[in-house]
Amino acid sequence: MEVHDAAGKSLFAGKGRANSVKTIAGQAPMKVYLGFANGVQVQLNNHVVAIGPQFVTGDAAHFEAGADGVLRRDTHDASANNAHPHG
Asked: Buried b / exposed e across 11-30, counting CB within 10 Å, b at 16+?
């Protein structure tokens, strides 16, 4: 998992454990890369958010998480099939 804030600063990079919780705070929109998206539940501002199929390629997901609690395609992602974040 990798998470970068709006300025591109890395907020987290690493692996999570099963049944664990990782809380990340930073300036939105946050750019998120999940290596095993099917095993992750995302919450934004204390609300569960579904990771839609438009953000998933294989097992990986790549998206921007907005302050409004909405997931969007990474606006800096040059290719819809690019599964790795920039920066």
From this structure: eeeeeeeeeeeeeeebebbb
